[in-house]
Structure formats: C-alpha cells, structure tokens
C-alpha cells in the first residue's frame, strides 16, 4: 500500500513538471519540493526503517569566537567527496556526512556541532565539533585544522579513531604568520591577566599544571573554550513532520491530496492562459 501511494505521488510530480515545461506558468506559481537525495526504484526494501532526510542536532552550536577575520566563513559551507561519502563543513556551525549511494537507505548524519577552539602554544590550532550522532557508546566528533591555502577548500578527511574525525581546511585567511595568534585577540584586561600569569610562572610561584589551568580560565572568559563542567545548550527541535517524510500511510495520503490539488490548479492556469489571446501572442 505504501509503495503504491509513493508511486502515485511521483506520477503527479512528473506530470506537474511536464505541464510547467509545456506551458507558460512562472516558477513562482509552481511550488514543487526538491528531491536532494538519490532514490532507487529497483530493489527497494520496504521493510527497512526509513532514513530521515532532515538532520536534527541535539545541541546548539556555540557563538562565533576567535580571530575576527574568520567571521567571513560564517554562513558558508564547503564540501568534499571522499570514499563514497560527501562531507560538508560549515565553519562555526556543524559538520555532516552523506553517503553517496543509490541504495534504499543511504546514511546521512551529523558528525559534530561547533563548540570551541583547540588552542596550542598561543595559537588557534583547530575548531572542535562535538555532540554528533551517536556511535556505539559515544558521540561522533570532529577536529578541523586550519592551514594556509590559495582558496577556501576542505582538503582532507580522516578517521584516526573510530567515530573521531580529523579534517584539514585550507583558507587564505590564515596565511599571515600572526593570523591565528590568541594573545592579540584578547581584551586588555585579559592580556594583563596573562602577563601577570607569565610572571608568576617565571618566578616559580605557580606549577605548570596550575599555569595551564589558569590560562584555560582566561580563554574561557574570552569565549574561546568551554568550561569542562559546562554543557552546550540543547537544540531547539522542530517537531512538525516534514512533508517529504512519509512516516505513515496517512501522511502519504495527505501529501497525495495536496499534490493532486496543485496539479488541478496548474491545469486551470494553463487553460486560462491558452484561452487568453493576449497571452498566446507573447
């Protein structure tokens, strides 16, 4: 029954496209939904669990922090296809993975949500993405290292540890030797606090362990790293059923009725235009 319903819907979608190509209806009048995932109408496994097309994070990504010139990357995404998977990096937001397969249930998932910086030797070393999809007893996570390049490019994806990914992102924004230094981006008060801490370390008034802990506190106050006890805010979930998710026969029938109504509207618009002499002369 579900298979028959889905086939009917596709029949009407194709019919709408043909009407659009043959007639003069504008794109604004045709409100069709794009299909972004590959489909396979051959050996379909109707008993297999449905793979949701929409990805829902469990936490919110952290606000932008770091060198101000990297803000140009916010809102942009960069992809790389490697080993039959498409990886997509949206700096300071999330990292996703999409299986490039025609099988019935290709994997699409979230590898990580942006949380903080990995700071090494006074340098913004990598962006850290955590709280991705579950993977056994843990969640997937990604470390994205920034390197100098002639263009913005996701260059490499690896998985050195199961479910822990390492990416290399090249960009001309980090080619200057001081472009990723932490100290210049701190406030005057934070710089003064760091200077005092360096003096205490030099006078051996604080241990290396204490120095690292206090320095981490300075980075916390700047928003570059999270407090180990701090958890990201939970994501705001949209509980409405996506119209393309046929989770039941009822949703399939509802979508069928909507598409059928759109087809009838398109037909009437085409007929009215064909009967209008002014339109036919255009």
Describe the protein.
The chain is α+β, with helices and mostly antiparallel strands. The chain has two domains: 1-50 and 246-282, no CATH class; 51-188, Cation-dependent Mannose-6-phosphate Receptor, Chain A (Distorted Sandwich). It is built from five helices and ten strands; from the N terminus they run αββββββββββαααα. It has an eight-stranded mixed sheet, with no helix packed on it. A hairpin with a 2-residue loop joins β6 (134-135) and β7. It starts with a helix and ends with a helix. Residues 23-52 and 239-244 have low confidence and may be disordered.
Write a brief structural summary.
With 282 residues, the chain is of the alpha+beta class. It is 29% helix and 24% strand.
Blueprint (SSEs and pairs):
Elements: H1 2-22, E1 78-82, E2 85-90, E3 94-99, E4 108-120, E5 123-131, E6 134-135, E7 138-139, E8 141-148, E9 153-161, E10 164-171, H2 188-202, H3 208-222, H4 249-274, H5 277-280
Parallel strand pairs: 8-10
Antiparallel strand pairs: 1-2, 2-3, 3-4, 4-5, 5-8, 6-7, 9-10
Helix pairs in contact: 1-4, 2-3
- The fraction of residues assigned to DSSP E strands is 15-25%
Instruction: Give start-end ranges of low-pLDDT stretches.
Output: 23-52, 239-244
Order of adjacent strands in the largest pleated sheet: 1-2-3-4-5-8-10-9
| Helicity range | 25-40%
Overall structural class, as computed from helix and strand content, comes to: alpha+beta
What kind of sheet is the major sheet?
8 strands, mixed
Total helices: the number is: 5
Question: What is the CATH domain class of the largest domain?
Answer: Mainly Beta
Say which CATH homologous superfamily of the largest domain is assigned.
Mannose-6-phosphate receptor binding domain
Task: Report the principal-axis shape.
Answer: elongated
- Number-wise, the strands total 10
Overall pLDDT confidence: 78
Tell me the domain tally.
2
């Amino acid at each position: 029954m579900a298979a028959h319903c889905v086939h009917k819907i596709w029949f009407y979608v194709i019919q709408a496209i043909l009407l659009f190509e043959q007639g003069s209806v504008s794109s604004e009048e045709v409100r069709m939904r794009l299909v972004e995932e590959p489909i396979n109408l051959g050996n379909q496994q109707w008993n297999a669990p449905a793979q949701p097309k929409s990805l829902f994070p469990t936490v919110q990504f952290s606000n932008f922090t770091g060198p101000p010139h990297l803000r140009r990357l916010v809102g942009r995404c960069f992809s790389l296809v490697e080993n039959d998977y498409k990886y997509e990096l949206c700096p300071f937001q999330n990292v996703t993975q999409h299986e490039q397969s025609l099988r019935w249930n290709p994997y699409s998932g979230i590898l990580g949500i942006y949380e903080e910086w990995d700071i090494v030797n006074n340098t913004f070393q990598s962006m850290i993405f955590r709280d991705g999809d579950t993977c056994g007893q843990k969640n997937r996570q990604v470390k994205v290292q920034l390197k100098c390049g002639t263009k913005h490019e996701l260059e490499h994806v690896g998985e050195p540890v199961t479910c822990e990914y390492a990416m290399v992102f090249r960009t001309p924004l980090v080619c200057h030797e001081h472009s990723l230094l932490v100290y210049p981006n701190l406030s005057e008060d934070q710089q003064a606090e760091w200077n005092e801490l360096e003096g205490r370390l030099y006078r051996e008034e604080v241990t290396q362990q204490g120095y690292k802990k206090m320095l981490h506190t300075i980075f916390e106050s700047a928003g570059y790293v999270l407090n180990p006890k701090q958890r990201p805010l939970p994501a705001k979930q949209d509980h409405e059923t996506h119209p393309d998710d046929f989770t039941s026969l009822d949703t399939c029938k509802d979508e069928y009725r909507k598409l059928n109504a759109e087809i009838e509207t398109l037909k009437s618009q085409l007929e009215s235009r064909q009967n209008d002499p002014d339109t036919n002369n255009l």
